[in-house]
Each structure stands twice: as C-alpha cells, then as structure tokens.
From TrEMBL, chain A:
Residues 507-520 have a biased composition (Polar residues). Residues 507-547 are annotated as: Disordered. GO terms for cellular component: external side of plasma membrane. It is found in: Membrane. It is a single-pass type I membrane protein. This is Growth hormone receptor b. Its main location: membrane. It comes from Gasterosteus aculeatus aculeatus (three-spined stickleback). PANTHER family: CYTOKINE RECEPTOR, INTERLEUKIN 5 RECEPTOR SUBUNIT ALPHA. InterPro entries: FN3_dom, FN3_sf, GHBP, Ig-like_fold. Keywords: Glycoprotein, Membrane, Receptor, Signal, Transmembrane, Transmembrane helix. One of its GO terms (molecular function) is cytokine receptor activity. Signal peptide: none annotated. Residues 157-260 form the Fibronectin type-III domain.
Automatic annotation (TrEMBL), chain B:
One of its GO terms (molecular function) is growth hormone activity. The keyword RNA-binding does not apply. GO terms for biological process: animal organ development; growth hormone receptor signaling pathway; positive regulation of growth; positive regulation of receptor signaling pathway via JAK-STAT; response to nutrient levels. It is found in: Secreted. Pfam families: Hormone_1 (PF00103). The keyword Secreted applies. InterPro entries: 4_helix_cytokine-like_core, Somatotropin/Prolactin, Somatotropin_CS. Belongs to the somatotropin/prolactin family. Its main location: secreted. This is Somatolactin alpha. It comes from Gasterosteus aculeatus aculeatus (three-spined stickleback). Keywords: Disulfide bond, Glycoprotein, Hormone, Secreted, Signal. GO terms for cellular component: extracellular space.
C-alpha cells in the first residue's frame, strides 16, 4: 500500500492525484458560494432600488396609527402621490365573496414623506387591517401588510426621567439610586386604556454592554451598586402589557457621583486598633502586674476539697470549718462519700517504692488475710494519684511518717520502731481480730508539736537525718503545707466513736473492700497543742494538756482501731465538753467520751 | 425530676406555639374575610348577605384583575403556539385561511367604545365571556390530541377556562349590583361554528386552533378594555371621554 512507503515515486504521484481530486470539489464549492454571495449582495443592492415597500405600521396609543413605506432608490417615485396606500378593514362577518372596498389613506402625513396617518375615526381595534402599497395608477401592487391594531402598538418613550441618590456604600465605591419617570403622554394610562410595562437599561458610558432590569409596572425603579466616579447612562422604554414590541428608548440620563474618600478610614482604624492591642499586651506582660495577668491569663485553679473552703482555712475560721467536719454524719453524706483530699496526697513514691513493696508484702503476709484485705493489699501498687494509698489504711501515711500520729505507746518518745516489730506488737494485741497493721517502716511516728490556730499541725522534726525530707514532704489538703493527720472517723450511727481508722480508703476500694458503710471520714486532728518540751513521755507528764498519744487497744470490727481511754485525769473534765480544747479539736479519747 | 422538667418544658413550648398561632389568627382574620368572601360572592349568585360584605369597587377591581390576567395568559399561549406550530409565512394569513373570528355586535374603536353606556359595556363583557366558555373546552380537547403540544400551552388553556368561569360569575354579580337587574337569563345562543363530530385533519386543526387562540386573545383584550373604561367612569377621576 502506498500508505507506508512514501518514497515510492509511483505512490507519491497517486497520492497527489488523490489529493487533487479531493480538493477539487471543495474548491468548486467555495467558488460557487462566493459567486452566490456576490450575486446576492448585488441583488440586495438592486432590490431596494426598484421596489418600494411598507416599512411598518405602528400605533403609539391604540387609538391611531401610522404606516410608513420606503420608496427605494428608484427615482421614479420621488413625486408625492406616486405611491398610494389603500387599506381595508376586514370587519366580520367577513364577506370574502363580496367586493372588497378599499379605501385610500385618510391622511398623508405632511411633516414626513411616505407616511400615512390613520386618526381615531379610521382606526378600529380588534379588526384586521389590510394595507396595500400601490402605484399611482393602482396597476402595480408593491407591498401588502396585514395586522391588528392592538398588535402593532409601540408606545412612545417615557418622559421625565429623573434620579435621586439613595445611599453610598461605606467604602465610597458604590451607590444606589432611585429612578423615576412618567408614562408617555400619548398613552392613556390613567383611564386604563393602556397598561404599560417598563424596562430600564443602564451602563457605564465607556462600555458597550447594557444592563437590563426586569419588566415592571411601576414608574420608578431602584438601581443598585453603580460605581462612583464613573459616568453611568440610564434609559427606559415601555411596551403594552401583552404587546410584542417595545417602544423607543427615552433620552438617556447621565448619573455621576464623584468618588469620595470614605468618612472613616477603615484600614487605618484597623491598624491603629491592632497596634493599641499589641501595646497593651506588651505593657501588661512587661509590668507583670498580677491583676492584669490574672485577667488576661487566668491562673490554673488549684485543687479543692469539696465542702471545705480553703479560704476558711487560711483565715483561721476553724469554727466554720468544724461545722463542715463536725456534726452528725448523716446530714452530710457528701463528705463521707467522696475522698477529695485523698486525691491530692502528694506521694513521693520514687524513694519508697521499693521499700513499699518489700515492707508491705512483709506486713501483708503476716496479716490474717481476710478476703476483705487481700485484694487490696496484694494488688497494691502505689501511684502518684494517691488514691491507691486508700486501699491500705496503713499506707497513706507511709511516705509521710512525720505527720502520722502514733498509735503505739511505745513510740511516744519519737523513737522509730524497728521494722516489723510493730506489726508483731499489733498482732499480739488482738490476735483474734483482723488487724490494722501499722506500717512496717522506719520513722513511722512523730510527735505533733503544735497545732496552730489556723489549723496547721506542726509536727516535731525527726531526730534522724531526714529532717529535710520530712518537712519537705507534704500531704496537701487544699494549700496547706502541714496537713492534718490522716485519721478517719468511723461514721457510726452513734456519732463519733473511739474507733479510729488509721487511714482512708478510696471509694473504689472501699466498695469492694472492707466495710459495708463508707469508711471515708474526714481528717481529724487528734492531738492537742503540746509544746515542744513535751517530747517526753506524755503519759507521765503532769501538765494539764492531754498526752499526744494514746494506746491502740485493738482493731475492732470494720477495721477500726480501738483506743484505750486516757489515764490522765486532767483532760477528763475537758472530755465531757463537746469542745474541750481551745482549738476545738477532738482527740480520740474525747471522741470516745462523746460517743454513746 | 429531669424528666418532669423536660415534660414541663415541652408543654410550655406547645403552649407557646398555640399562643402564637392564636395571635396570628386573630391578627389575620380580616384577611380571611377579604380573601374568601369575593369567591363566595361569585359562586353564590343568590347570596346577597355575603356579597354585601365586599364593596362594589373591590369587586370591580377584582374583575378587572381577572380580565388582565386572562388577556396576558392568552397572549402568551398564542405566541407560544405560533412559535411551535405555525410556520412564518402563515402567521399573517390566518384570516385568509378561511377562519375568522366570530364576532358579536360590539363596538370596535375607542371612540365607539366611549360612546356606549355602562349597561352596554357590562352586557358586552358578559356576552364575550359566555361566548368563549365552550370554545375553550373544545380547544383543550383539540390540544390534547396533539403529540407535541407543549405542556405550557395546555396548562395555560386550562387555567384560562377556569378563570373565565369565575369572571362570568363576577360580571353577573356586577350587573346585578350596578344595574339592579335580576339574574340574567343566560342564553347561550351561538352560531355553531364548531362541529365536534368531525375531527379535522392535522393541518386544518392546527390552523383552526391558531385562529381560536388569536381570536380569544383579541376578545380578552376587549373585555379588559371595556371593564377599565367602566372603572374609569365609576371613579370619575379622569375625563373618560
């Protein structure tokens, strides 16, 4: 095939021939079209020259109408009267078979040539008109037209086009205007003979594109968003309602609103506002005024005990505080159902973690492991939440041996028990009962040296080297540095009992754990404000202040500690009162007397 | 307690909506009267008590509105029909095709129109309206026979038929009110222009329908003009000479 090899001269020749053959008809066609167009244009130029024709019949007010014709370019019709217009009104019933009576134009216009004016008498609406353009001798019919008068209505343009400024945009770049006009005088709109619809067009003078509005019946119209500083051209036209053709456009009105600088510079305002804001922020940050800082960057709220207002503690209003802590427990179930303070125990488990596990396992193993305790203690792993310490009543105080009020009279001197001696002691005390094992660790007890009126409990520093650690460690209740000792009051029905539960259990643990009733009590200070010189054996002290320590009698039911009543007679009279101590704190022995 | 609160809230919400509706009903009740009464006026030709609640002026206004709308819609459907079915050369030869509009002895120029009396105006309008009730029905059936008739034309024709009926009722009431005449004996004596038995051929049918539409358009314009002239005379603001 020749398609493949072009180099073949025979192929090439044949290809060329094919191409020529294909091109030839198209060439001929093009020539034909060209000639046709040429002849057409020639004929168009020729036709108007020869034949006159009716250009159109138009009515402006549905009462009269005019017919105009074109004489063409022929010189033979320059004389008036060379062309005559005849018309007939086909009034029904149409008598086609009959003789048609044609009438000549009633009035040939004087102001304009080649126009025939039909006045009111000769205008009948709703009837068919037939208009013929004939030569002078009526021998030649040049043109004919059929119409109904109401169909050929093209109203005159509206008059009195006027505009008023509505508003200018804030930026001053655009504005709105209200356009108003009057209907043409020739149209009898007032009577309702003609109902007109208006169409407004507007454009920027420099552009060629006209923008249109919808048809409206009203003689006013608002135009929006015209640009300032630019010359805008507006015009309006109308047509009859139900009519086909629009009338002529009115004279254009030019609208120009100069571009004004906007009354307030928006950009400048924004920049200024931003700068002010930045300046204020910088000033605040630099000056480090606490008040402003607090407003701008409020501090993170600290922990709170529900029911205890930390302000009360700060201000030393112990009476209000006591009102929360004291009182029958059944009136304040919320205090006993939650352990808010436990959450805020700051346990330093890093140093004690190993010890914790070792000691605990020792302690725990030696216990008579009731089902209540085992899950708690074996599974215990301390974490920072502090809540875990609730499960083991001994453990909350583990990292903080200093605030713990010792329960064993042996330790009144502040000596640390040796490891696990305590446990044996406890075991020996009440073998048959489940024990609350004192934590088997060193430095378990310390002496409460002072209770401040503000409620702070000062613990005597340890004689060991780890004083710093003791004082440094805090069990935080609210924002206290030294915290109340963590003793739980058993909310028995009878009120306070002599049973102490050393430690707290978290709600989660307690539910699965030890007792049926919620064991979460509040923290109590069980000591009186001894002076520092009371480091000696308080039981033997002749001083009226009650001894700091008391003896754990045993572990009662529900894992409560049974304390022996104090042998010191001095505080006895104080015991009878509900508020014996100057600070209003109840000691465990006092509590014992309060209980029924 | 939360549930009770929610229920209470719901019931209060319902009460609010009920209150709102009642308020709207109270505010809008005059509209109910004005919008509903004219229709009742037209449908019940003997019911004087209801018609007395709408003034004659308002009734005339509504009648004129109807006539305007009918004319506009008929014009739209006529031009649409022309575009769809009638080739250009035939558009101006409708009267030469052998069909002409059936006309009634009604004045046809403005000057003639202005000379006739109110009574004659109203009667002319009534005659016109009544003369077109039947042919429009015929037109609808004829249009339905076409395959390619646009929905728009059919819908418009239906709409016009309905409006024409209400227009007739309105004009009857007007005659009764304005001319203090009794109920007219609605005699529909017309020339039987249409023979319903013979179904014309397609081309014939098309031309016939075209003629019908254009004639109806013309007559609708007449109705509108007559009624407006009547209104002008009633208000006497303009010199309706």
């Amino acid at each position: 095939m020749c398609l493949i090899s072009v180099r073949n001269p025979r192929c090439l020749r044949s290809m060329l021939l094919h191409a020529m053959a294909a091109a030839l008809p198209t060439l001929l066609f093009c020539l034909h079209v060209f000639t046709l167009s040429a002849t057409e244009s020639a004929s168009q130029q020729v036709l108007p020259q020869i034949h006159p024709r009716i250009t159109g019949c138009v009515s402006a007010n549905t009462e009269t109408f005019r017919c105009r014709w074109n004489v063409g370019h022929s010189q033979s019709f320059s004389q008036p009267g060379d062309l005559r217009l005849f018309y007939i009104t086909i009034k029904p019933p149409a008598n086609f078979p009959g003789v048609e009576v044609w009438s000549e134009c009633p009035h040939y216009s004087t102001d304009r040539p080649n126009e025939c004016f039909f006045n009111q008498d000769h205008t009948s609406i709703w009837n068919t008109y037939s208009v013929q353009l004939r030569s002078r001798d009526q021998a030649t019919l040049y043109d004919e037209n059929l119409f109904h008068v109401e169909d050929i209505v093209q109203p005159d343009p509206p008059t009195g086009l006027n505009w008023t400024l509505l508003n200018v945009s804030l930026t001053g770049t655009h504005y709105d205007i209200m356009l108003s006009w009057k209907p043409p005088e020739s149209a009898d709109v007032g009577m309702g003979w003609m109902t007109l619809h208006y169409n407004v067009q507007y454009r920027n003078v420099e552009s060629d594109l006209w923008e249109q509005t919808d048809l409206g019946k009203e003689t006013h119209r608002s135009l929006y968003a015209l640009r300032t500083g630019v010359n805008n051209e507006v015009r309006v036209r109308c047509k009859m309602s139900g009519g086909k053709e629009f009338g002529e456009f009115s004279d254009s009105v030019f609208v120009h609103v100069p571009f004004k600088v906007s009354r307030f510079p928006v950009v400048a305002l924004l920049v200024f506002g931003a700068l002010c804001l930045v300046t204020i922020l910088m000033l605040v940050i630099i000056s480090k005024q606490e008040r402003f800082m607090a407003i701008l960057l409020p501090p993170v709220p600290g922990p709170k005990i529900r029911g205890i207002d930390s302000d009360l503690l700060k201000k030393g209003k112990l009476k209000e505080l006591k009102s929360i802590l004291g009182g029958p427990p059944f009136l304040r179930p919320e205090l006993y159902n939650h352990d808010p303070w436990v959450e805020f125990i700051d346990l330093d488990i890093e140093e004690h973690s190993d010890r914790l596990t070792d000691l605990d396992t020792d302690c725990l193993v030696e216990r008579s492991l009731s089902s209540n305790w085992s899950p708690l203690s074996i599974g215990f792993r301390d974490d920072d939440s502090g809540r875990a310490s609730c499960c083991d009543p001994d453990l909350p105080s583990d990292p903080e041996p200093s605030p713990f009020v010792p329960l064993i009279p042996n330790q009144t001197n502040g000596k640390e028990p040796t490891t696990c001696e305590l446990s044996s002691e406890v075991h020996g005390a009440a073998p048959g009962e489940p024990r609350l094992v004192a934590p088997c660790r060193e430095r378990l007890y310390t002496q409460v040296s002072d209770v401040r009126s503000s409620g702070k409990v000062l613990l005597s520093p340890e004689e060991q080297t780890e004083t710093g650690r003791d004082t440094g460690k805090d069990i935080v209740v609210g924002k206290e540095k030294k915290v109340l000792p963590l003793l739980v009051v058993n909310p028995d029905q009878g009120g306070y009992t002599s049973e102490l539960i050393a430690g707290k259990m978290s709600p989660t643990f307690s539910s699965g754990g030890v007792s049926e009733t919620r064991q979460t009590g509040e923290v109590l200070v069980s000591s009186e404000p001894p002076s520092r010189h009371q480091e000696s054996d308080p039981t033997a002290s002749p001083l009226p202040p009650a001894p700091v320590y008391t003896v754990v009698d045993g572990v009662g039911r529900q894992n409560s500690l049974l304390l022996t009543p104090n042998s010191v007679p001095a505080p006895q009279p104080a015991v009878t009162k509900i508020m014996p101590t100057p600070d209003g704190y109840l000691t465990p022995d006092l509590m014992g007397s309060v209980a029924p | 307690m939360v549930l009770q609160k929610a229920k209470g809230h719901v019931s209060s919400c319902q009460a609010d909506t009920i209150m709102r509706r009642c308020v709207w009903a109270v505010l809008l009740w005059p509209n109910l009267l004005t919008s509903s009464v004219p229709l009742d006026c037209r449908q019940e030709q003997g019911g004087v008590s209801r018609c007395s609640s709408i003034s004659q002026e308002k009734l005339l206004d509504r009648v004129i509105q109807h006539a305007e709308l009918i004319y506009r819609v008929s014009e739209e459907s006529c031009s649409l029909y022309e575009e769809t079915f009638i080739p250009l050369p035939l558009q101006f030869q409708r009267n030469q095709a052998g069909y002409s509009c059936r006309t009634l002895p009604i004045p046809s120029s403005r000057s003639e129109v202005q000379q006739i009396s109110d009574k004659w105006l109203l009667h002319s309008v009534l005659m016109l309206v009544q003369s077109w009730l039947e042919p429009l029905v015929y037109l609808q059936t004829s249009l339905d026979r076409y395959d390619a008739a646009p929905e728009v034309i059919i819908n418009k024709t239906k709409w016009v038929s309905e409006k024409l009926i209400s227009l007739e009722q309105g004009v009857v009431v007007l005659i009764k009110e304005m001319l203090d005449e009794g109920l007219l004996n609605l005699n529909h004596s017309e020339e039987a222009l249409f023979q319903y038995d013979v179904q014309p051929e397609m081309v014939e049918s098309v031309m016939k329908d075209y003629t019908l539409l254009s004639c109806f358009k013309k007559d609708a314009h007449k109705m509108e003009a007559f009624l407006k002239l009547l209104k002008c005379r009633q208000t006497e603001i303009y010199n309706c000479s």
